[in-house]
Amino acid sequence: NVACDIQVRAWDDLIPTLTRGESDAVMASHVVSARALKAVDFSDRYFHTAARFAARRDGPKLEITPDGVEGKRIAVAKGTAHEAYLAEFFRFGRIQAFESPELAREALIQNKVDLLFDDGLALWINGTSSSECCELRGGPFLEPRYFGEGIAIAITKADPRLKSELNAALKRVRASGRFDEIVLQYFRTRL
Fold it and tell me: 130 or 135, which is more confident?
């Protein structure tokens, strides 16, 4: 029941609009992180993005555990939290780091690797470009040290009243069941 003036901005300009006083809140899937908290505050988390494995539908059914993927070729984007997570917890897989998530995804589509490890939401969204060859497997993996503390609405540190109002609204939308309806409308699989 609040009028909103929605403004479209370039991603790199979203948080600066808060610090310059040009916006009251930013809702654009910002991950709560220590770095972001230096500049802004956040509402309660409204979503958690999980890391997931993807595999070819016609590939072997693997147990997605460190032992279950031992020796399997796992594609991942180089220099990402996903690569670091694999190195820590799935180090017995044959990790193949690619220059970009797109190249890692293409390696799976072309059957050059057995698995792909990436952001579950990105894998789901980009599933249509996979020619329906692939599916999510295992997980979700939600380790905050690697994948953040969830997604929330960014706000200035100087407006605790707005934070309280946003948190109350998020609680109401969850309690009403509407949040789950919206999520299921777009994401028919558990991310």
Answer: 135
